[in-house]
From TrEMBL:
InterPro entries attached to this UniProt entry: Glutaredoxin, GRX_PICOT-like, Monothiol_GRX-rel, Thioredoxin-like_sf
Domain Glutaredoxin: 1-64, 113-177
Gene name per UniProt: Glrx3
Protein name: GLRX3 protein
Cited Pfam families: Glutaredoxin
SUPFAM superfamilies: Thioredoxin-like (SSF52833)
GO cellular component, one term: cytosol
Length: 184
């Protein structure tokens, strides 16, 4: 669902126009709502989403973001997969791209605190991974790990997905915190 200024055929601002063009270019089927048609929705959605500007793109009831977020996803080669709900990602026509995206999202959200590293909790396979394990173990926080050395698709895909080129990568509640330097 795209909350925008105007309608797809007649956008009433440049940002809404660009958003519609991106969605159409990628063949994304979407509905829209002209926020100028209802002031209560226009103001209420800003509070609801904690996002002050329009357009706002929602997928499966969750705010994806505005034009800057969507443009960033396209530039990061997430393209169409970024816009589709998990069910469509898992059963889409281009299953290779969609399954990869779906799998990464699932792995990142496997546990509230998820560490992608070289090795596992019992045995780190690089100095950076060993250091981050020591930090996490000293905090007493429950966490899960994923050994990126055992799955090249995840190892390479997560770099693009997160725009973070190195490992380890720590995620909390599905959001990238960063690597060892950030955690330190």
């Amino acid at each position: 669902m795209l909350f925008m200024k105007g309608f797809p055929k007649e956008p009433r601002c440049g940002f809404s126009k660009q958003m519609v063009e991106i969605l159409q270019r990628h063949g994304v089927a979407f509905s829209s709502f002209d926020i100028f048609s209802d002031e209560e929705v226009r103001q209420g959605l800003k509070s609801f989403s904690n996002w002050p500007t329009y357009p706002q793109l929602y997928v499966a009831g969750e705010l994806i973001g505005g034009l800057d977020i969507v443009k960033g996803a396209v530039l990061a080669d997430l393209s169409i997969s970024f816009f589709l709900p998990t069910s469509a990602l898992c059963w889409g026509d281009n299953q290779g791209i969609f399954l990869s995206f779906c799998r990464l999202k699932s792995l990142i959200n496997k546990a509230p605190v998820m560490l992608f590293m070289k090795g596992n909790k019992q045995m780190a396979k690089c100095g950076f991974s060993k250091q981050i394990l020591e930090i996490l173990n000293n905090t007493g926080v429950d966490y899960e790990t994923f050994d990126i050395l055992e799955d090249e698709e995840v190892r390479q895909g997560l770099k693009s997905f997160s725009s973070w080129p190195t490992y380890p990568q720590l995620y909390v509640k599905g959001e990238l915190v960063g690597g060892l330097d950030i955690v330190k």
